[in-house]
Amino acid sequence: MAFGKGCHLHLIDGSAFIFRAYHALPPLTRKSDGLPVGAVAGFCNMVFRYIEDAKNGDAPTHAAVIFDYSSKTFRNAIYPAYKENRPPPPEDLRPQFPLTREATRAFNLACKEIDGFEADDIIATLSRQAREAGGRVTIISSDKDLMQLVGGGVDMLDAMKNLRIGPEEVEAKFGVGPDRVIDVQALAGDSVDNIPGAPGIGIKTAASLINEYGDVETLLARAGEIKQPKRRETLINFADQIRVSKRLVTLDDQAPLDFTLDDLEVRDPDPKVLMEFLHQMEFRTLTKRVSEKFGLEQPVPVSVPVQAAQAGAAGGAEKAGGEAPSVEAPPLLPFDTAAYTRITDAEVLAQWLDEARAVGWIAVDTETTSLDEMVADLVGISISSVAGKAAYIPVGHVTGSDDLFGGAVLAEGQMPLDVALAALKPVLEDEAILKIGQNMKYDWKIFARHGIRIHPLDDTMLMSYAMFSGLHGHGMDALSEEYLHHVPIPIKELIGSGKAQVTFDKVPVDKAVAYAAEDADITFRLWDQFRSRLHRERVTTVYETLERPLVPILAEMEMAGVKVDTSILARMSNVFAQRMAGLEDEIRAIAGQPFNIGSPKQLGEILFDTLGVPGGGRGKTGAWATGADVLEDITTMEDEHPQAARLAARVLDWRQIAKLKSTYTDALQGHVNPETGRVHTSYSIAGANTGRLASTDPNLQNIPVRTDEGRRIREAFVAPEGRRIVSLDYSQIELRILAHVADIPALKEAFHKGLDIHAMTASEMFGVPIEGMDPMIRRQAKAINFGVIYGISAFGLARNLRIPRGEAQAFIDRYFERFPGIRAYMDQTIGFAKEHGFVQTLFGRKIHTPEIGDKGPRAGFARRAAINAPIQGAAADIIRRAMIRMPAAIAGLDARMLLQVHDELIFEVAERDVDPLIAAARATMQGAADPAVKLSVPLIVDAGQGASWAEAH
């Protein structure tokens, strides 16, 4: 039906429905997974009652529910502080927002939102279009901001009070007619939306002024005529602020719609679609009402309402528009570890694998003798394809010892390893069967060492990471407790702890079955929940393009390892030992007495008690704090406390050398795999909230590069004969992302021209020419350029540059004056985090910020983390995209990717393929953002090659 004369359009304010529903009902959760659904339940009741009431009254011909797309709109460009004061939505409400959209569509109502515009602007645009087409409009809301639209065929309906709002009701509220509401609001302002208005002028005074002078512009033009001095001065002094306020409160009735009025024609709900949604949400009472309405049989038995719905829900539900919703569906399937199966027979295993083929998926978990996949022996494999049904295939448990040969012997009641792997291999490599795991990279490497390449796969740890980064950990035990309400069997019950701890192969098979099979069951159940939730959390693309594809890439890198020359490390250890001995003599000479330099307690007593350094702090034990930050501060006290300053500086040098020796030159020798002769680090995909990878066992990402000693350690990472190490490193990628996201013309221009960005910044800040610039000035600009990404404070900058805090603050102030877009970016990011509870990268990665609203020191840390996360996270996303594309890019070359160190990729390549490798890898890295994001600055990759990592970088 084409919209025209005689048509009636209903526009429902979706946000108003959501918040009224949320506050009207007690907390409700879905029984099956604990998902908060109280607001969704109330919302559904309100929509259902609306549909029923609309049919009985002045029925609409067209209708839509209008939502806010996001918190940021064109008004934030006009006034960055717009709505800044609004608190973030409650934690349990956030996951319900997308579900209300699903509910709207389930009721077959048009569901509309537009990026960059508020729901009110969409309502204003549709109201204008409907009036011009000769139709009528009813806005179902009580929002005062929409009252400027009333009149000329448009009215409002407060559905909660069943109260019609026309021109008379608007005038009763504002003291003026609808056509002058925006003038009154511009003067009075709005503390809720942080609209400044005219200080000291409220609604009544504003209405009086507008009734006398007609409109805001006339009033401001004649402000000098106002008799009251204070009011007159306010109008004159805050004229621009009032005009900005008017722009903020004026609804945009020209919003760019991607749909027409005709698309909003009323249609009856599809009963099956609606019932399926209500059943999925487990709304017992509403499901019953809808089924009775449409004469349908309920799809599942109705269960007893949960306690939360029973306790006092009726009164609240009445306000929300109907009977109190109850959460139905049986509780989560209980865990019965006694029901798990031990598989020792090939025919039984074949039956389980046939079931996996039939359903198209199988959860897999391995039990081994070590956390190091490169040396671990396979002890057993657990599988599950249905919740509550799991099996364990023991293959490597040992018992007792062989008296003749003195070694452990295989326990009875197991399947031969080769038989089990032969049966599993076709399934684990079958493209048609999805393999599900928790931290699947570990299991992938275990199977790869036995000639099996798992594909395709899903990883519940990475699903959780994509959805909940920053909220909690992603280990299986934590996820099981959080989402399945089940505490898994503790591993310590089987292997013990401390000196008495044994490896898993020593665990009796009968005891291992319950523990191991439970892991597969838990993993399957988590996957069953997470697979649909990814879409609701709007991170499916993040998981599918940045997380899951990285598993085999990293696994191959880790298995390849990197060659380390232990003779170089041994020589360096000796050199470091000599350096430390020399520093120890010097430190004790400065102190004037012998003491244990490795004892923080003794060092603190010398610095603060003997030498009298002021301002020290004590820890919980009462000992003086002597961390690196404390010692760095003392080094700046050369004028007041020269002896202490020298002592602190030498201790810092000693600590650095000691750490290099213990962490790298000594420890790395022990990490060389005896079979491969190489070091195999392990990358944690879900370790850092921002998406950065973390390297462990050993950590190869924290080798210092700013000191000669740290750089020398990289000399030990070498290429075999006939091959070369190639390093490709993004140049200042985080600064480039900052220039893009904050839209800083000067920085973007500098990057396009290939200028020295730090010299350019110094020139902009201090007004000095780039040519012949004092290196100290450039160093200061560099410290601010990188520091600002991490939300550096004047205190931190002063420490880095060893200058007074006041001078550091002046530098920062000057920086933001010259680049105001950076401050605006920071403010907007913090505001977004406060409103939504998370920040996002350019590629959609969510980093939750649960502490952003806290007070005290933690709030400062949370704000700095929120500012940095989208930048560091985007850089991490870009290099992930490059790594995922790299195998295809370098196919055909005798080369392999070995390491990732933040913004750098390390390759080992045959000498003849060095140049082609650099060309292919550089092109892949520089184009990694495309086509998802079109950066406004170029990505530049520096390349180097040599016999060692030190030569290549």
UniProtKB/TrEMBL annotation:
Limits of the DNA-directed DNA polymerase family A palm domain: 710-913
Record key words, sorted: DNA damage, DNA repair, DNA replication, DNA-binding, DNA-directed DNA polymerase, Exonuclease, Hydrolase, Nuclease, Nucleotidyltransferase, Transferase
Nuclease found in the keyword field: yes
GO molecular function ontology, one term from the record: 3'-5' exonuclease activity
UniProt catalytic activity: DNA(n) + a 2'-deoxyribonucleoside 5'-triphosphate = DNA(n+1) + diphosphate
CDD domains, per the entry: DNA_pol_A_pol_I_C (cd08637), DNA_polA_I_Ecoli_like_exo (cd06139), H3TH_53EXO (cd09898), PIN_53EXO (cd09859)
InterPro entries: 3'-5'_exonuclease_dom, 5-3_exonucl_a-hlix_arch_N, 5-3_exonuclease, 5-3_exonuclease_C_sf, DNA-dir_DNA_pol_A_CS, DNA-dir_DNA_pol_A_palm_dom, DNA/RNA_pol_sf, DNA_polI_H3TH
Domain 5'-3' exonuclease: 4-267
Enzyme class (EC, first level): transferase
Top-level taxon of the source organism: Bacteria
Ion transport keyword on record: no
Listed SMART domains: 35EXOc, 53EXOc, HhH2, POLAc
EC number(s) stated in the UniProt entry for this protein: 2.7.7.7
Gene Ontology process terms (BP): DNA-templated DNA replication; double-strand break repair
PROSITE patterns (UniProt xref): DNA_POLYMERASE_A
Domain (3'-5' exonuclease): residue spans on this chain: 340-535
Role summary: In addition to polymerase activity, this DNA polymerase exhibits 3'-5' and 5'-3' exonuclease activity.
Family: Belongs to the DNA polymerase type-A family.
NCBIfam families referenced in this protein's UniProt entry, alphabetically: pola, PRK05755.1
Subunit comment: Single-chain monomer with multiple functions.
Identification of the protein by name: DNA polymerase I
Organism: Paenirhodobacter populi
Gene of this entry: polA
